[in-house]
Design goal:
A: 333 residues, Rossmann fold, OB fold (Dihydrolipoamide Acetyltransferase, E2P), 2 domains, six-stranded mixed sheet, B: MetI-like fold, 13 helices, flat, binds adenosine-5'-triphosphate, binds magnesium ion
């Protein structure tokens, strides 16, 4: 069980309201990702759910029980911290055993769960090492192991992969996704990396300045962003925004078109421009096109290798059915 | 660049300080060794014949020696226990958010800046004096007979005075160690179900291990040679009850004017200090490895 609901939860540090009243439902077994720019209150929200911070007003219910009076340990949630927060003087085995020891789990049961977690996370060979003797990825796995053995109602992750290098991050991302499939436990995952959000989430919560901008499945957010902020935040490279006469021509204050929804041609098209930087990745080619008279740069993503270089003139054609239209308040029309 | 040339230059540059340091340490050490094998008493001026190990024999077989040895160890261990335990508790207290915490911290650190002689005099006359001392007044107010601390429990009283001086040092080091504890670790332990006591026992105390080791090692060096506090308060008495090795050496060489026996005592003290150091490093030195 791991149903969490936030009702009018508000958090202020002194006079500063970091999270204005906010409602959110997290269903049992869901993988929910909080994304948003730095400082928007993702960690704060997670810590409120964990009980490490007290809500200023409002209520958090976990499995239908109001949690206001529940200390962190009694909420049945396990948290994986960005810095891993392993206990440096304890071996990996003792680290993983610590929550069970505190809960008074019997020694045999502890052994059984440690062995299970260690084999699931490839930690069996490292059980007698200290955290200081492990690599970043291994430490991350120990932190996850320590969370798993508690058999929590929900896992909370606060940017668990941000200290890892790119390759390791992709690997751990898959491992965490697999873990979720296997355990089918609710997971709340904070990140500011939208690729992590898109690939892992069942449900993405986009936050800005403590406010929820949109909640939805990854593709829903990608195809149907509710406003300019979400449109700009989800998707990489960013959506192009065009204002002025061209947007008016499409009956919008601002029109948005994703780089992958613009066709490139060397000979003909709707818009004309000059290529600035061309990024040839092999699988894709990104062009940053200037001098279109529409916006400073228009980013275009072409599939495969396209033989256009810096300084070449290009013609761009937006795919008509993929154009997003926003009104003057930035809301989707 | 670690070329041969650069290394030679580096050696040349540091040689003055190395030579100075060596001279600083070696000359007094050698002279002490030399004096310790002479019959050299200032009351009998004139020649100072070679005496072999006679001084050592005399010093080691002196009944006061065993007492002094035991007193030295009791003093060191007693003060260490009080300062580590007290320092941890004080650090815990000072680590809490509270009103005017800056002022409290300075107040707690203040005793460290009081000279040993002065603090011993203050304790002797202001607190422990059986007639006018504050403790005497306190006892009388409670209807008890005043307790003459320095006469009836001299070693304990000195342990108290020296602990008072060293408590700030221990508190300061342990407080900084406590503040360097990653708050996420505490939060992780909190989520893992550890109550305040368990968190202290399983997270904070192991974290303080290294700092406590530093405190123990540094304090031991200084506590082995406590002197001013004894001279000012009890003069090593009553009898030998509060004589430690340092004070015994002082009594031999300066009260009895016997430089030879005093030097022999000094050499014995150096050897004992080294034994203690080796023992300590064996016992707790591993805490210093990262
Ligand atoms: N203890 C605190 N006291 C005062 N302000 C705080 C405190 N903790 C966080 N804040 C403020 O609350 C806001 C949200 O912080 P939070 O740590 O939740 O951001 P975040 O979304 O996790 O950012 P990041 O992606 O950089 O981790 C920030 O503006 C921060 O300055
Ligand atoms: Mg954060």
């Amino acid at each position: 069980m791991g149903h969490i609901s936030l009702n009018k939860v508000r958090k202020a540090f002194g006079d500063v309201e970091v999270i204005p009243p906010l409602d959110l439902q997290i269903n049992d077994g869901e993988f929910v990702v909080f994304v948003g720019p730095s400082g928007c209150g993702k960690s704060t929200l997670l810590r409120l759910i964990a009980g490490l911070e007290d809500v200023s007003s409002g209520e958090i219910e976990i499995d239908g029980r109001p949690s206001a009076e529940l200390p962190p340990a009694k909420r049945g949630l396990a948290m994986v911290f960005q810095s891993y927060a392993l206990y440096p003087h304890m071996s990996v085995r003792k680290n993983i055993a610590f929550p069970m020891k505190m809960a008074g789990v019997s020694a045999e049961e502890q052994e059984r769960r440690i062995a299970a977690a260690a084999s699931a996370l490839n930690l069996t060979d490292y059980l007698d090492r200290k955290p200081g003797q492990l690599s970043g990825g291994q430490r991350q796995r120990v932190a996850i192991g320590r969370a798993i053995v508690r058999e929590p109602a929900a896992f909370l992750f606060d940017e668990p992969l941000s200290n890892l290098d790119a390759a390791l991050r992709v690997g751990m991302r898959l491992e965490i996704s697999e873990l979720h499939k296997r355990l089918a436990t609710t997971m709340i995952y904070v990140t500011h990396d939208q690729v992590e959000a898109m690939t892992m989430a069942d449900k993405i919560v986009v936050l800005r300045a403590g406010r929820i901008e949109q909640v939805g499945a990854p593709l829903e957010l990608y195809e149907n962003p509710r406003n300019l902020f979400v449109a700009g935040f989800i998707g990489s490279p960013r959506m192009n925004f065009i204002e002025g006469p061209e947007a008016a021509h499409h009956n919008a204050h601002t029109m948005g078109i994703r780089p992958e929804h613009i066709d490139v041609s060397a000979t003909q098209g709707q818009w004309q421009g000059r290529i600035g930087v061309a990024e040839h990745l092999g699988s894709d080619t990104y062009f940053h096109v200037h001098d279109t008279g529409l916006a400073e740069t228009i980013t275009v993503r072409a599939s495969g290798e396209v033989a256009l270089r810096h300084g070449d003139t290009v013609f761009l054609t937006p795919q008509a059915d993929k154009i997003h239209r926003f009104n003057n308040e930035g809301l989707k029309q | 660049m670690a070329t041969t040339h650069a290394r030679a230059a580096a050696r040349l540059m540091i040689s003055p300080s190395v030579i100075l340091l060596l001279g600083w340490m070696l000359i007094p050490l050698c002279m002490t060794l030399y004096f310790s094998v002479l019959r050299y008493n200032l009351l009998m001026p004139g020649d100072t014949p070679f005496a072999g190990i006679e001084n050592y024999q005399y010093f080691l077989t002196d009944p006061a020696f065993t007492t002094a040895l035991i007193n030295t160890l009791v003093l060191v261990v007693g003060v260490l226990v009080v300062t580590i335990v007290g320092g941890t508790l004080l650090a815990l207290l000072l680590d809490q958010p509270m009103w005017a915490s800056g002022i409290w911290r300075i107040l707690v650190i203040a005793p460290f800046f009081v000279m040993p002689t002065v603090s011993a005099l203050v304790w002797k006359n202001m607190f422990m004096n059986p007639v006018n001392g504050l403790f005497a007044h306190l006892f009388k107010a409670l209807g008890l007979a005043p307790f003459d601390f320095l006469a009836q429990a001299p070693l304990l009283s000195i342990i108290g005075i020296v602990s008072w001086q060293w408590l700030p040092f221990a508190t300061l080091i342990l407080l900084t160690a406590m503040q360097s504890l990653d708050s996420e670790q505490i939060e992780a332990a909190e989520m893992d179900g550890a109550g305040a006591l368990s968190r202290f026992r399983y997270i904070t105390i192991p974290h303080l291990g290294r700092a406590a080791t530093v405190v123990i090692l540094i304090e031991t060096i200084f506590l082995l040679s406590v002197f001013a506090e004894i001279l000012v308060t009890t003069n090593g008495g009553p009898g030998n009850a509060s004589t430690n090795l340092t004070y015994l050496i002082y009594a031999e060489s300066l009260l009895r004017f016997d430089v030879g026996v005093g030097s022999a005592g000094g050499v014995v003290a150096i050897i004992l200090a080294n034994i203690v150091a080796i023992f300590l490093m064996r016992a707790i030195g591993k805490n210093l490895d990262a």
